[in-house]
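Record type: monomer structure entry
Structure origin: computed from sequence
Chain ID: A
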Amino acid sequence: MTLLQAMKNVAKSGSSGVVMEAVNAVNWTPDNFDFSKGLNYLERHSESLEDDQRILVLQDIREWRKHWEYYLRSQPGGSHSVPSFFAQVALGTTQAPNPDGIAMMTIHSAKGMEFDIVFVLAMVEGVIPDYRAKGTALDEEKRSTFVAVTRSKRLLYLTVPRSRIMPWGDPKPQAPSRYLATIRSALKIS
């Protein structure tokens, strides 16, 4: 039984029925969906609500639209999966950073953005590149590192800790990332 079918079985009446109709409006396929169609359905339904409820629903819809639009801009190609969308929402990558503060984000979520000052933390083997990366995944790690070091408009800081405390509590000496040598040679730094 699919998740959607299970949700339909649970929804009996009232607002659950409205939510299920919104879910149906999304036009799901295995590798794509249009979240905005479900939001449009909820927006139309909100017209029948009391003023205070309608205001809350419309505020939620407005926030979800921002998440969806940001997700669409950040995803290459036309394929959009539900797990990918909700993972990005959960990680906070569908929220535009506030220019008046500090944005703490993953390298992947920084694609397409620029900042005055960028700190890339833990430029060590096992972190950048990830210790699990092999073959084509290693090439992707190199591209991600390029993304990280090209996000800065003015200042770029690359940090290399001498050691890290491992999950089991022991400090472990760290080796600088192999990509630092490439960065140094490209910038002609000795």
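Annotation 1: The chain has a mean pLDDT of 81.
Annotation 2: Residues 167 and 173 are 14 Å apart (CA to CA).
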